[in-house]
Amino acid sequence: MGQESFRGMPINDLYSLALDEASRLGATYADYREEDITEQSLSVSDGSPELLNKSFSTGFAIRVIADGAWGFAADSIINEDSIRKTAATAVEIAKASARINKSALELAERQVVEDAYATPFKKDPFAVPLSEKIEFLSELERMMRIDSQINSTSAFMTFIRTQKFYASLDGSRISQDIYQAGCGASCGVIRSHRDRSERSFPTPNGQWITGGYEIINMFDFKNELPRIAQEAIQLLSAKECPQKELDLILGGDLVSLQIHESVGHPLELDRVFGYERNFSGVSFATTDKLGSLKYASDMLTFVADSTYPGGLATYAYDDEGVKTERNILIDKGVLVNYLSDRETAHRIGKKSTACARAEGWMNTPIVRIPNILLLPGESTLDEMISGIDDGIYVISPNSWSIDDNREGFTLGGEVGWEIKNGRLGDMVKSPRYSGNTVDFWNSCDAVGNSDSWVLWGTPNCGKGQPGQNMRTAQGCSPCRFRKVKIG
């Protein structure tokens, strides 16, 4: 079905007033962004509905450059008076900021466009009756109750529709109607505070896409949920994770988190330039290393691509009106580009990679992780396992920690299995591994093929001051790494 008929939000000409007023007050650049956001979240826990929430948010923002500095202001009331006041505030902030700026900011070029985009989907999630959704989630819970030892179950679904309109002083006019959907389930055995286990599917965060209610048909819940319930029971008597250097295979869901933390965030160009220093750190991948840093092994190529169908970060234009396209970040192991907005891209003489996004109308756009794709290799999981004499296979991310330079990290999974003489062995609990970003990615010697490749959605990426949450995605297959510190 899709949204072919969508042509933009029902707006009036107030955006023209916003741009004209900003220009009259001294702005040399101005853009106007209006958003209408609808979100519905449902969850069922231990047999009862736990969360039934539907929220709405509407507002606009005006962003300007005046005297070579940024100014930004937003309001939830959309009328002539609020438009004029907000434009004046944005320009006033810019002029005040200019007094302490060391140099005037400049923006990378981008095309002026008039366009509309809408997420294609098969079934409108907001048209599905609430009772049908609750029954579906309750059925997921029942599938996990395979044994009386399973005493904790939950399932959730969330749907978000964001209608946004963007207009700029130089003539761009862009409408986008983006649908995002998430769904997942988890179960556990809780005997005491210390004696407990948990398993989830597809990941602890579920799985997230751009799309509609069809997300519920993407997974084999009937077979997978009883499996994770059985694993939750087995974990209680599983071995402790060994603590030594071993070969490691990560499931695709854990590779996704590894990409997010040690490729996505380090390559945010605003972070590289120190914009995040006071909050979540900087990056070792400084611009003097562009084109020379051997970031990963030769078999690894990472691509930023928010045109890829169905990704949680799939959109046509970012919040600066830059059209998305495929950009290689790491080419056969070598760093060749960054995630950027117009300001940071200009500083390295490149065009923006369309990564400027804001959480809602009330925040200013900053550089955010898009869809990052690790291109598939040629190996099957069985082939990767058969090439290990002594190792471990870990899936389902449940913990992470990384230093403020994005180099040293420790990540963990819900469950793992020993690998002995090319075969999977005993289950292990609380598997953890750690390493250095560049050394770790260079130790990768096998990448799963396209049959095992999945674009995993991350719904809760935090960044910025004030903090903004963003939805991102990482596409990947299972990968094998040599001589990794385990435990």
What does it look like?
The chain is an alpha+beta fold. It has 2 domains: 14-235, PmbA/TldD superfamily (PmbA/TldD fold); 239-486, no CATH class. It is 20% helix and 39% strand. The chain has helices at 14-24, 80-98, 130-144, 221-235, 252-264, 269-272, 342-347, 381-386, 437-442, and strands spanning 29-45, 48-66, 69-75, 114-118, 152-168, 173-190, 196-201, 207-210, 239-240, 245-250, 302-304, 327-331, 334-335, 356-357, 366-367, 371-374, 390-402, 408-420, 423-429, 432-436, 444-447, 454-463, 468-476, 479-486. The strands form 4 sheets. Strands 1, 2, 3, 4, 5, 6, 7 and 8 form an 8-stranded mixed sheet that branches. Strands 13-12-11-16-23-22 form a 6-stranded mixed sheet, with helices on one face. Strand 12 (327-331) and strand 13 form a beta hairpin. Helix 1 runs parallel beside helix 2.
| Total count of domains | 2
Structural class: alpha+beta
Rg (C-alpha, Å): 24 Å
Percent strand equals 35-45%
Work out the number of β strands. Answer: 24
Form type: globular
Calculate the mean pLDDT score and round it.
96
